[in-house]
Amino acid sequence: MPPRKPIVGVMGPGKTEVRTEPVDKHVDLAMELGKQIASHGWLLLTGGRNLGVMDAACRGAKSAGGTTIGILPGPDALDVSDAVDIPIITGLGSARDNVNALSSSVLVAVGMGPGTAAEVALALKARKPVILLATQPEAEKFFQSLDASLVHVAADVEGAITHVKALLAAKEAAEAEA
Amino acid sequence: MPPRKPIVGVMGPGKTEVRTEPVDKHVDLAMELGKQIASHGWLLLTGGRNLGVMDAACRGAKSAGGTTIGILPGPDALDVSDAVDIPIITGLGSARDNVNALSSSVLVAVGMGPGTAAEVALALKARKPVILLATQPEAEKFFQSLDASLVHVAADVEGAITHVKALLAAKEAAEAEA
Amino acid sequence: MPPRKPIVGVMGPGKTEVRTEPVDKHVDLAMELGKQIASHGWLLLTGGRNLGVMDAACRGAKSAGGTTIGILPGPDALDVSDAVDIPIITGLGSARDNVNALSSSVLVAVGMGPGTAAEVALALKARKPVILLATQPEAEKFFQSLDASLVHVAADVEGAITHVKALLAAKEAAEAEA
Amino acid sequence: MPPRKPIVGVMGPGKTEVRTEPVDKHVDLAMELGKQIASHGWLLLTGGRNLGVMDAACRGAKSAGGTTIGILPGPDALDVSDAVDIPIITGLGSARDNVNALSSSVLVAVGMGPGTAAEVALALKARKPVILLATQPEAEKFFQSLDASLVHVAADVEGAITHVKALLAAKEAAEAEA
At the top level of its lineage, which domain of life is listed (chains A, B, C, D) (predicted)? Predict the structure, then answer.
């Protein structure tokens, strides 16, 4: 079998979660990030709903011919983004945040709210690397206090992609050695 | 966006579950079924592990150029089948059986054990159609006693595919009307 | 610490699941069963909602001074039975059926529907003993075809209690030996 | 039926999670907190394992005659604390963190690690009040940036109990009005 494509998770607030910044900036960043992820040949995984960062990242990835996976919280696909190719219907509510964390080789948080914070924390608990893009300084300081070795901060989409590339390469090297 | 490809689930015993019949028959059927599912342009979803019916169905689908999704029970991908393109790592243990049921538009059970029985029952609970292929008569009678309108019995792979085709067409027609 | 009280699970249809028999018979049996479970000093675990077998078993247990645990599927306690002392709010939907199965030392099914079938199957998958009370013959034959050593059939509440007592004693003996 | 006893959750690092402070301080605080929770007639809910804050809080509660609920991540009770009266075996891995958050009326975090951070974030996502006790300043600033109205900081056990009392009273008043 040919090697499996890496899965990169993009997490971030839907509209209802954003408390500290206008959502538009995150939506724009997520769209560009999704596009870049697809251009690099990686699969995109998001929370799959038709709003906010999840939706924007998927739209970006589809615009560049990528494949998108959406891990939905509800028991049906009523609120799935049109830009999700593969809807996984979990029915788990917020417990699905852990499926997002475990299924992504690297997680990028674009903006921050309670749901995104849960996903980042669950990723760290599972020893997965996380990249914070456009999150408040409080988030950066907090997550780095939990585990500085796993938490990376990116200033822009290009910086986030550079981190993803390096982290995937490190993972591949570690697996080749094992 | 172009229409999403339907997801067909194939469930069945890993080695440890089979109690009533030799596993080889189910493995052969699952491989052929996976192949046919891919040939029809549908996505294949299984439990994702590297054994029994899950593995065989994925291998069959890959041999026909299909795309395979594996919903894994464990917290990592150590036991994923080589023939899974998209591993979803749930960490949920057997609670992932409900993710299998909800994420499949139609579920085909090839053989029967406790895990497969749980997946069929959870599919019926969610009002999803199920096709039983090569299951013991006790299973057919029981599941039809639960919900005759949702439970179909197929004598062979061709019969199962005929059922899948009709059920997906009915689903599409119902959605177009809604 | 004094020894922990055993947890006995009682599962069975809410109204919407019953397809083959009038619900009243099961409600009466569940109420008596809950009462007997409490009288023996065991904790009662159910799906926790305010309908059908779950509700009746809890009411029975409370009438005899017992303690009741309800494992709720939804994200809040809006539909909890008044007779549940300890509501566990899972938000997992039907994936909570596996929490019911794992948390019970012995599971008694009173009547049968898709949800109850899932709970019985998940219990067998986890190697837990199950007692079938007032289920259709198709259910008895099917589950015994899956694992005859774990599936017991009771003709009435007294028979079910006799089975529970023997199974709990066997579990305790096995644990003492280990 | 008499009114149900409120459930207060106490979350905090097991040994493996502590990165910023010695664990002993948290263990001592958790034990005293558990004792106070039991003295007020509330039920205690923790992650249920036999280590760190979970274990200590349960021991404290039992020393004051309380009742303790443990929501275990694994598929069996092998690592349950001796001081848990009611082990709920979820088999969900870290997805059980959301069961902890949803099932508690108020959540107290004693110390902080990735798992505790996930539980606090999931509680906020579900609009549940949280009290931070002996957490690093970065944690306080971050969670208050997410939702200042739900996040309370306590300097000591007495302060935490005062918050719990006020939050439970407010909840009861809101429910009486609804």
Answer: Eukaryota
pLDDT-derived band of residue B23, with 50, 70 and 90 as boundaries? low
d(CA B97, CA B118): 7
- Provide the 8-state DSSP code for D95: G
Nearest to A117 by CA among C76, D151, C93, C122: D151
CATH topology of domain C7-172: Rossmann fold (3.40.50)
Is the complex ipTM more than 0.85?
yes
- Cβ-defined contact of A91 to B98 (cutoff 8 Å): yes
Which residues in chain A come in under a pLDDT of 70?
15-23
Interface of B with D in 94-113 (CB under 8 A): 94-95
Q: How far apart are the first and last CA of chain C?
A: 19
CATH of the structural domain D7-177, one choice from 3.30.470.20, 3.40.50.360, 3.40.50.450, 3.10.20.30: 3.40.50.450
Backbone angles phi, psi at A68, to 5 degrees: -125, 135
- B121 CA: distance to closest CA in chain C (Å): 5
CA torsion sign, C56 to C57 to C63 to C66?
Answer: negative
Cβ atoms of C50 and C74 within 8 Å: the answer is no
pLDDT averaged over chain B? 94
What pLDDT digit, counting tens, does each position of D56-87 carry? 999 999 999 999 999 999 999 999 999 999 99
- Residue A176 CA to chain centroid, in angstroms? 25
